[in-house]
Amino acid sequence: MREQPLTHLDSSGHARMVDVSDKDETFRKAIAAAEVHMQRHTLDLIVSGSMPKGDVLATARIAGIMAAKKTADVIPLCHPLRLTSVTLDLVATDDKIEITAAVTTKDATGVEMEALTAVSVAALTLYDMCKAVDRSMRIDNIRLQHKSGGRSGEYNAK
C-alpha cells in the first residue's frame, strides 16, 4: 500500500518528483488540441505552400512530435516516458489552424503533459514561421480532450 499520496511535495513541503514505482504499467492515451487564429491571407499562404519560410504545416508537425518526446526536459517534475506513438494533425479551417495531438504509452503514468506540450510547441512553431506576415495571430484554446488508462480512469472533455 502507498505510504505517501501522489503529490509533488515531500513531507517537508519541498518539490519532488512523484514516486510512481508501485503503479502498474498500463496502456495510456491522451489527446490534446489547440488553435492558431490568423488572417485569411496568412492561412491562404500556409495552405498553398507559399509561406516564405517553407512548409509551415510539416515543420509544425515535426516540432510537436519532437516536443512530446522531450516533455520531461522542459516541464519540471514530469516523468520521462517511453512513448509508443505520437500523431499530430493540423487542419485549416476558415480563420485558423486546428491542431490535435494523440500520444500513447505503456507506462506507470499518463501522457497528458506530452500531448499538451505537442500542441503548444506546434502552435508556437506556426506562429514563429508566420509572424513576419501576420503578427496578429493568436494561439488559443489549448486543452486536454481525452485521457484514458491508469488509476484515475477515463476523461473526455465536454
Spatially, the strands of the biggest sheet line up as: 2-3-1-4-5
**Could you give the count of β-strands?**
5
* CATH architectural arrangement: 2-Layer Sandwich
Summarize model confidence as the mean pLDDT: 90
CATH superfamily: Molybdopterin cofactor biosynthesis C (MoaC) domain
**Which shape, going by the Cα principal axes?**
elongated
User: What is the strand content?
Assistant: 25-35%
- CATH topology, what is it called? Alpha-Beta Plaits
Number of domains: 1
**Could you list the spans in which at least 5 consecutive residues all have pLDDT below 50?**
none
- Quickly give the structural class: alpha+beta
Family: Belongs to the MoaC family.
Function: Catalyzes the conversion of (8S)-3',8-cyclo-7,8-dihydroguanosine 5'-triphosphate to cyclic pyranopterin monophosphate (cPMP).
Active site: 128
Pfam family, one: MoaC
